[in-house]
Protein 1
Amino acid sequence: MISAAFSPAAVTAAAKETAGPGVTFDQVSVAYRGAVVLKPLTMAVAGGEILAMIGPSGSGKTTALRAVAGFVRPASGRIFIGGTDATNLPPYERGLAMVVQNYALFPHMRVSENVAFGLKARGADRDLIARRIEESLRIVGMSQYSKRFPRELSGGQQQRVAIARALAVRPRVLLLDEPLSALDAQIRRSMVEEVARLHADLPDLTILYVTHDQSEALTLADRIAILKDGELSAIGRTGELYRRPPNRFAAEFLGRANLLPVVVSGEDHHPAGARRLLCVRPQNLTLTGDAERSNSLKAILREIHWQGELTHVVAAIGEQILRVVATRLPNPPQRGDRLSLFFAPADANLIVEDAGV
Ligand code: ADP
């Protein structure tokens, strides 16, 4: 289910009346040979926003992106791009560009020719092409490589060129499908920062970013949509979704979470007697209480692992495992010790097992 601010009917109405500069999915479903892989999806991506679509492999992320690109035809629903109903437009009339995992640069063309390709195909004049090559390569920090061939570049550099090529046609919407997953971890981290910088340079560009890597999404996205089995499981502003995931799937997909089964005794948003999960992130459990962190749980220490900057503690209340990540532990406890684990009310929230609050 979906966070509180989300209302399919309101999004649909807004899309039809004012369809803004971004992208709107209005009840979009996709089927391959009769098998539904994207159930009716309604969500709006604001102009200039980075929305990350995350979810496990096979959850329908790429399919949703390909529907926006025009590479698959929805079985039902409508797609608005930049305020226009694009459902029946061919891909090249949608004002967007797409970058996929495997760069797909033309191997026999130099970097500058690769970047120029889309503009040449559209019959742009030489001055414009030269200007756009220069601008696009500058944005991705590849100006000095314009004469190289793709084989003379590293994977990360090739992917920068692929992004420059996408930007050269000045798309309104940039679709990124696992753009960094072919790169190794260290390069991936620096590329994430580059995509963030790129967006700072081009604040009007709407970006749909598909990834299975929640840390890329947390770093980059203004909002995150989580897909599960072809359905929207949760959507929300990045920090808010991380701090207040609406359900177990969202909580666990966005990072480590302690989820304690509880029964509501009386509260505003949940009925008394309801079974819920109390969600506290490992870094929000501490071994020392204070005025703010006054809620406490009694547990037994099972394991403790010191990892340089962080110490990981595994504790248990009966069969229930609790994880704590601490930055400073002046007097590390030992296996078998009784612990009090503290948390602040603001760092804990009640969530549902699965769909539907
Ligand atoms: P994700 O991007 O989240 O990994 P996809 O959108 O690629 O997921 O796939 C969603 C589901 O649709 C998967 O079960 C996949 O096998 C299926 N699928 C994707 N493309 C095709 C296709 N061209 N023909 C048939 N089934 C497909």
Note: Residues 32, 37, 55, 57-63 surround adenosine-5'-diphosphate (CB under 6 Å).
Protein 2
Amino acid sequence: MAKQIQAIRGMNDFLPEQTPVWQVVEAKLRQVVASYGYSEIRMPIVEMTNLFQRAIGEVTDVVEKEMYTFSDRNGDSLTLRPEGTAGCVRACIEHGLVYNQERRLWYIGPMFRHERPQKGRYRQFHQFGVEVFGLKGPDIDAELIMLTARLWRELGISDFVTLQLNTLGSSDERAAYRDALIAYLEHHKDALDEDSQRRMYSNPLRVLDSKNERVQEILKNAPKLSDYFGEETQAHFTGLKSLLEMAGISFEVNERLVRGLDYYNYTVFEWVTDSLGAQGTVCGGGRYDGLVEQLGGQATPAVGFAMGLERLTLMLETLEKVNNIPATVDAYICMSGEGALTHGLLLAEKLRADCPDLRVMTHCGGGNFKKQMKRADKVQARFALILGETEINDNKVTIKFLQGQAEQQTVSYDELLPLLG
Ligand code: ATP
Ligand code: MG
């Protein structure tokens, strides 16, 4: 036998047993965003590499070590998208969608990051994201968080997620803070890990995000970003907090929350859970008022979030919130005798036209009734519809109930329909 070729590590197949939960989640997502009046946008999976370098920032985990970058046949450097915001902003600028206008958009699709695969962390994963342009907030920031909270309610997981909230202030405030933070970190340089030492000059705020406990210990006495906030930042954050309180959404202010990408300002938030172990962030987002201009558009305020659908579906499975039962068949059509195959196929087509919700499977591959009935059982059909010689001659069909005790009946097509409910 030829040697098998396997899928790429960290890139998953979604088997028929797994897709139903994805379908439930995707349907809910679409329904919730529609109920807020948002429109879908679809971007390519591959973009020019410099888009991500410029948008996400050179000194970030994603750009430094996680991107799938390659040269195409023209020698252009291309990258499989590691996230959706950069491509969305690029598309909006390119098509004039955000020039002096508001947009509330959503997208869904695969993202690619070269990380160490583990539970909740993969190399191809899927995000659902929302991006809003042209609104300064905090009303719209609150709306985005309310939208996510509604989704958790719809999926029955509100009790298992908590909202962490922070503000990063304006870029001027961060610049002033940056100097103070660098001065503090210089004092403790020897105690910092390698990543933090490297980042303390290029991107010192990312040191706050460090997962190293010793670094976190040192940070306890570091100057605080919040000491550098002016009135506008305070008012924006207070506004958001009081809107959330009024909406009954509880949150925890976490001053350590800086988020992994460079483009955020003002509001940042994450929804976290402890039902997934280490990969606890299900959804993260924030405001990125500088990005549109940074990518060549007209200055436009913007805010968005992205949620990881693998983590969300894992949560639903762990908490047993959805039945991961594959779609079953309602009617299985069995036939035998001269011309029976044509009758069977046509009966199935007629049923699908008259009852669009009915799941009808036609037996293919021949064989006797016994074999056909075995197939019907195997796919867990609710009824077998049998076309033998007698049925075909009398223009009737026999319905055999495969679940429950009802007696089988031989009926006309019109009599059949009410029996299929
Ligand atoms: P983490 O700190 O877990 O690496 P992140 O800050 O890199 O997350 P974001 O870029 O904010 O993640 O992406 C938004 C969401 O996408 C995350 O909260 C998570 O749910 C999901 N996500 C990110 N990376 C992965 C991955 N490699 N595999 C699966 N889901 C992911
Ligand atoms: Mg990450």
Note: The first strand starts at residue 39 and ends at 40.
